[in-house]
Amino acid sequence: MKHWKTYAAFIAITFAVGFLSAAVSAPDAWYEGLKKPWFNPPNWVFPIAWTILYVFIGVAGGRIWVAGLLGLPFLFWLAQMGFNGLWSFLFFNQHAPALALIDAVLMLAAIIGFILTTWRPVPLAARLFLPYAAWVAFATFLNGVIVFLNR
Questions:
Q1: Which three-class secondary structure state does DSSP give residue 26?
Q2: pLDDT value at residue 22
Q3: DSSP code string of 83-120
Q4: Is the pTM for the entire model greater than 0.90?
């Protein structure tokens, strides 16, 4: 792979954001005490899903970098990373699920923006974001239901 260092750097950045977010935002007794819907996945599912998604996110970021798409697609990539890192902090650390829901909606918008702006010029990057969009859409819905159940 010609640009392996670029891809490795983007994957490392993505995991660094995830690890930093997790380090300051571990679930606690507050989270355990929340009312959750029946479809809330068990806690062990989240690190598995996010590990796979972080690789996809990093490869997609590297792909647009290599392709020279440093305008709007890259801004969407940066925005979703910021919203991604902020969500756990808002939800778990600040105990603010309503603010986290707003963040999740903005993250999903950035993900969709990324997909739409990369679909033709870098289809692999867009396709790598499809499972991410599905997961974040589910997580956003779940976050909304948790807000509703705990109002």
A1: coil
A2: 87
A3: HHHHHHIIIIIS--HHHHHHHHHHHHHHHHHHHHHHTT
A4: yes
